[in-house]
Structures are given as C-alpha cells and as structure tokens.
Design goal:
With about 475 residues, this protein is of the alpha/beta class. It is built from 16 helices and 13 strands. The relative contact order is 0.13.
C-alpha cells in the first residue's frame, strides 16, 4: 500500500487516478469475494424457487481470543436495495437469534415438525426490511471463542462491544449496506443488548459526518428494562392473573424488594419457588396456550442470580431447531461450525446464562440518553407473558417520567382489537392482546403490523375497519 501511494504522489495526476481506480477495483473485488463466499446456495429442505437471497458465516471480533460471531442475513424478496437493514437479537442471556428470531418468529423460513423441511413464513419481517440475525455473545449457537474462559465471564459490556465490532466488519464485507437506514430489534434480555448496542453506536458516531452505521432507532419486545420495576410488575401480574395465592404474593412483596440485587435472599428464593409450584402445568411465557412438555421446562424457571424467573424457553418449535441446525448438511450449507466446535449447536448456552457477570440492574439511563438524542424507540409487549409481563414493562417505562403525547387507546387489526398503545414524548408503547413472550411466534400478523408502523413512525390504527 505504501508503494502504491508513493507512486501516486510521484507520478502525474492522470497516472495517480489510474492507480487509485485500480486499487479501488481490487478492493471491491476482494469484498465481493468475501461476500460471495458467504452466500447460501440452498438450504436443505427449503421450498423451491425461493425469491430472496441469503448469506451466513463468521465475522471475527477478537483475533487474540479467537472470538467469532455467526450471522444469517435474509434479504427482502422485493427491492432489497431500497429497504432498511434490521439487526435482530435474542436474549437469554445466552440464547440464539437463529433459533428464535429467525427460525420461529420473524424470519422468512420456519422449520416444519419433521425437523427437515422449511416453509415460508408469510408474515416475515423481511417483507419490510433486510434481516440480519446475530448469534451473540461468542459461545451462543454457532458463534465461538477459542478462549474457554470467555464463556464464564460474559457481560453486557463485552457483548455490546463485540456486536459493534461485528457490525463494522460485517459492513466492510457488505458495503452495499453502508449508510443504509439501520435499526435494531430484539426481545427479552435483548432489552439490555439492544439499547446498550444502540448507545455504543450513537457514541461512536459522534463527530462523524457520514457514519458507516446510519442508526435510526430500536424496537424491543417484552424487554428486561429495570430490575426493580420489572420484578414488582411481574409479581403484580402473577397475582392479578390468578397464578399465585394471596399468601405467596405477600411473601414475595415482603421478602424480594427490600434490597433488590443479583443475589436475592433465601426467603425470596423460597417464595419464588412457591410461586412456580402454584403456576402448575402452564407455559409461563404464554399462559393461555398449552405447553409442549412443561415437566422439564418448569424446572428451569428459577435461577438464583435473577430476582425473578429466568428466560429459558422450551416450546416444541425449539426442538425442531435443535435437530435441524445439527444436521451436517445444514451446517455445510450455512458455512457454519467450520472449526468443528466440540459441543452440539443448541438454542441456549446454559454456561453463559449461569455465569453472566457485571449485569447492570437498569437500562433507564440508557433510554434517557437515546430519547434525548432523538432516536425512534418503540417497546411492544405480549400481554399473556408471565415472565417479563406487560405490567413490568409499564412500570419501567413510567419510571422514565416522559410526557404523554397520546394516552392509552385501543388499536385494531382486521376488525378486531389488536391491543393497546400509549405514545410518550420520545417513546411508543404497544401491547399485543393475547400474545406471549415471543409475540411474532403467536401473533405474527399483529407483530408485522407493529413493525410496519414502527418503520413508518406512525401510530397504531385506531379504526376497526
């Protein structure tokens, strides 16, 4: 590079321009080669005549530690060059965006119950945007680290920094997305991931006239926002929906909110265990739908390092993902597991979730900073989720003390109530009636409408026709 630049400065302007164009050509060719290497020719079991392009592969975010993050890009089937780019993150912490966001929620290809066949999701969000799914942090899904200790000391901060590095390096590989309108979305513990990554992008963009990442805003569903308000809202929801007894409710109120931190008291833990027992054989992530097999999943609902129940989820769709993404031919087609990871692909990494460190108890200050900066921020909540319920989200948002622009009102979809909404100065809250923790899984049409209104920055429809 030094020799080329030396020649440019020593030769005539015409020769300099020629060398510059030549250098640009080879640079573009190199990027194109890297991009083409990640292109998916065909996934096993996919429908014929697929009308969108997809890519997947690895981006190294730490050369010294050997941390590499796996992504899956599904472009829009119509006019992808004019559509925005959306990054989707699932939470856990330690759960896969490929397993949940892509394969059973907003992605265009879902897995049939034979765990071999894929079918088109007509309500995929790639109808409106190009979707980028990221398995993060390293150790989740196909993402990996060559440093074993990385799995035992994951944190919010490192996850945000690695995700930012991923984005910058991924955009270098896909330069057509540079300067494209960019949004971030996610759910559950991504209520931490999404605003923190948004904050990092905002701060890094300061002082740059044309930033590579043209960040416009974020959208989060049933998100973890603030421990104190989330926890209190969860207990209120359990009692208000008849899931727990008066005595257990009183025990939770009396023992779990005096000194809320990541190490709840023994009496608080015991009260939580009583609450889980009183729930019975339900899916706490969707209380009005039958569980797939709750005898094992309910045992995972309590983890001492959280002041409320954890976010491990075990629906039947998760089983199909586990089988499908462990097929060697699927991994080959997706350019995944190229380093031959010593453990099978899984929907969640329990080691990461159990040993999560340096977890801030609140995102309220991050929201305040991003609201003041003028970004578009929407929060949506399925009101049949008992894990991060709508009451938890409402308490946390009210703690921001934002002025009300439009008070609580019903919105409609296909002639029926779709949910309710409230518009604050700088933030919009939308609830989805009858939906659980994974809104796009149970109410895909309504979820797509919410995303559409978010992109348009328009209020939810108020008429029933």
């Amino acid at each position: 590079m030094f020799l080329v630049m030396h020649l440019i400065t020593r030769k005539t302007p015409l020769f300099g321009c020629f060398l510059f164009l030549l250098l640009s050509f080879f640079s573009s060719a190199h990027k194109s080669t890297n991009q083409e290497r990640d292109k998916i020719a065909r996934l096993p079991g996919q429908p014929e005549n697929l009308n969108f392009t997809q890519y997947s592969g690895y981006v190294t975010v730490d050369n010294l530690a050997g941390r590499a993050l796996f992504y899956w890009l599904t472009e829009s089937p119509s006019n992808p060059d004019s559509k925005p780019l959306l990054l989707w993150l699932n939470g856990g912490p330690g759960c896969s965006s490929i397993a949940y966001g892509a394969a059973e929620e907003i992605g265009p290809l879902h897995i049939a119950n034979d765990a071999k066949t894929l079918y088109i999701n007509p309500y995929s969000w790639n109808n409106l945007a190009n979707l980028l799914f990221l398995e993060s942090p390293a150790g989740v899904g196909f993402s990996y680290s060559n440093t074993t200790s990385d799995l035992y000391n994951c944190s919010d901060s490192r996850t945000a920094k690695d995700s930012y590095k991923f984005l910058v390096r991924w955009l270098n590989r896909f330069p057509q997305y540079m300067h494209r309108e960019f949004y971030i979305a996610g759910e559950s513990y991504a209520g931490h991931y999404v605003p923190q990554l948004s904050q990092l992008i905002y701060r890094r963009n300061k002082g740059i006239k044309e930033p590579t990442i043209n960040f416009k805003g974020f959208l989060v569903g049933n998100p973890v926002i603030d421990d104190q308000h989330d926890s209190f809202g969860a207990v209120e929801y359990w009692y208000g929906h008849g899931l727990i007894s008066e005595s257990t409710y009183n025990k939770l109120i009396d023992t779990c909110f005096d000194a809320l931190d990541n190490s709840p008291s023994i009496t608080c833990i015991k009260a939580q265990e009583e609450a889980v027992a009183e729930f019975g054989n339900i899916d706490p992530y969707s209380i009005y739908t039958p569980p797939c097999n709750s005898t094992t999943s309910l045992k995972r609902e309590l983890r001492a390092h959280y002041p409320w129940m954890t976010r491990s989820y075990d629906p039947c769709t998760e089983r199909y993902s586990t089988e499908y993404f462990n097929h060697p031919d699927v991994q080959l087609a997706m350019h995944a597991n190229s380093t031959k990871i010593s453990y099978p692909w899984g929907t969640c990494n329990e080691v990461i979730g159990t040993h999560w460190s340096n977890r801030p108890p609140s995102m309220l200050s991050v929201y305040q900073e991003l609201i003041a900066a003028g970004f578009r921020i929407w929060v949506f909540s399925g009101d049949a989720d008992a894990v991060v319920p709508v009451t938890a989200t409402r308490y946390s948002i009210e703690a921001l003390k934002l002025p009300t622009v439009i008070n609580w009102y019903p919105w409609y979809h296909n002639g029926r109530i779709g949910g309710w909404s409230k518009v604050y100065k700088g933030l919009t809250l939308v609830t989805i009636a009858g939906a659980g923790h994974e809104v796009p899984l149970l109410h895909p049409q309504e979820a797509l409408l919410v995303f559409d209104q978010f992109l348009k920055n328009q209020y939810m429809p108020t008429k029933s026709f």
